[in-house]
Amino acid sequence: MSHHSLNTLTYTALLVVVISLLSSCAITVDSNHVGRDFIRLDTSRIQFGVTTKNDITALMGTPSYTLELKSMGRHSLVYRYFSRMAEAVAPDQVASRLQTFHFDLNERLTGVDYVSSFRDDSTYFDIEKASRIKQGDPRQRVIELLGPPSGVNPIPPPESELGEVISYSYPVTKYLDKTYHLLTYNVLIQFDKQGNVATVDVMEPAI
User: Where residue 33 falls among pLDDT bands split at 50, 70, 90?
Assistant: First the structure.
């Protein structure tokens, strides 16, 4: 994994990376486990700190898998789908989407991440523009450069001295030897309590 960081990766940002599987390392998935197609759950239908894990499964059904990270005080539900028949953003890629819901130990929702290479709802962004984000920039400056984030994690762990983490991620999925190979490009931005940029982490896969 090639990891370029503009600042030291913070605890909360690390948490987002690990439990949403948005690291820039390759992930391989057997062709028999492509997942079930789903529609991205809009954040207008959930409430951070209130919505429960049972609420999400009632809306989304059984997840593709779950992740338990009790040492970090979090666990996650992951919904994943690959389709070789659907149109991807690039002709040599497989259309793929993942949505991850993060919960605290009380099973209350703390964040949501989404990545997609489906043409109709791709989360593609220009990762080169991340270098123009500076510490102290307001949130609006980030949005102007990169657009709406694909992930929002507004509730940091209680011990964190910083605030919200937003993420920009897009997947590149190839199909080789009856196996799906997934890489992701990621930018993680954490804000301070005043809503200004505290850290920026850029992660790109080694190709």
Answer: low
Q: Is the dihedral of CA 153, 156, 160, 163 positive or negative?
A: positive
Residues of the domain holding 97: 3-203
List C-alpha distances in Å: 169 to 10, 70, 87, 93, 205.
18, 25, 19, 16, 12
Closest residue by Cα to residue 101 from 58, 71, 133: 58
CA–CA distance, 113 with 23 (Å, rounded to integer): 12
Predicted model pTM = 0.85
Instruction: Give me the number of domains the chain comprises.
Output: 1
pLDDT digits (tens, 9 = 90+) for 68-78: 876 666 788 99
pLDDT, tens digit, for every residue of 188-197?
999 999 999 9
